[in-house]
Amino acid sequence: MKKRYIYWIMFFTLQDLRCYYAQPDDGYYYSVEYEPLNDTPEDEGRYSGGRAGEVNKDAGGEHECHHAMDLALLFDSSYSITTDAWVKMKEAAKRLTDGLDISSDGAHVSILVYSTNVDDYYMFDENADKGKISKLIEGLKYYGEWPRLDRALSAIPHRVFSPFNGARSDVPKVVVVFTDGKLEGPSTKLGQSDLLNSLARSIENLRRKDVMLYGVATSGVTNNQVFDMIAGDQSRIMDINNMEQLINKLRNISIEICRGMY
Q1: Matching PROSITE patterns, A to Z (predicted)?
Q2: Within the chain, which residues score under 70 in pLDDT?
Q3: What is the pLDDT of residues 130-176, one digit of tens each?
Q4: Distance from first CA to last CA of the chain, Å, rounded?
Q5: Using CA atoms, how far apart are residues 251 and 139, in angstroms rounded to an integer?
Q6: DSSP 3-state assignment of 228?
Q7: Nearest 5 degrees, angle CA 126-CA 161-CA 148?
Q8: Class of the 69-259 domain?
Q9: Are 67 and 107 in contact (CB under 8 A)?
Q10: Residue 238 in contact with residue 216, Cβ under 8 Å?
């Protein structure tokens, strides 16, 4: 009788262990928390109640996908940007951020201004909201020097997308460049071919790090060589008066990546 009693204790103990450990396809064991067999209406929010999320039920599981990304806004403040264009550029950027989910779980925004040099105006902050980002954009400083986009883009990997400045490792990285497409420097030092080669190296370095680039044309011209290099194709070049298209593209980026992961 005593042996039979011990046998049943061991049997139920093993069943409990089987329920507590799950073995996925990769062969590794992970402990999992128990969940109730039947969700009450109050429990539904855990799966479908995200502020800007979407539940992905593919592959037999459920995971909430947010519109999360680390977004760097890069503003051209060189001499060729007119006062009117500078105002329109900032207004367009504010429309862009207003259409995104700026939150701790959603989009984090950094802001940079460039001319001859690059000004790290504002780095990622998970506590920032749309109101704060809008005020920061409105207060951007205009420099009016050479348009050195190549320098600005070369600075982004280590000055923006780094953990030290609040960048996350598990969300899409996006750069939106507001510019008229000019790339110039002192003619006595650098020729146009030198500048284009420098820009190409900067862009290639960003793409190797899986950074997505979009260009917003302040002048209405979206087919020059610089824009082609920035975006790679016309679908990533936007007119400054059509931010809705860019908003929709950015909203879908993280959702599509999340669907591919879960």
Answers
A1: VWFA
A2: 1-66, 187-189, 220-223, 254-262
A3: 999 999 999 999 999 999 999 999 999 999 999 999 999 989 999 99
A4: 50
A5: 26
A6: helix
A7: 120
A8: alpha beta
A9: yes
A10: yes
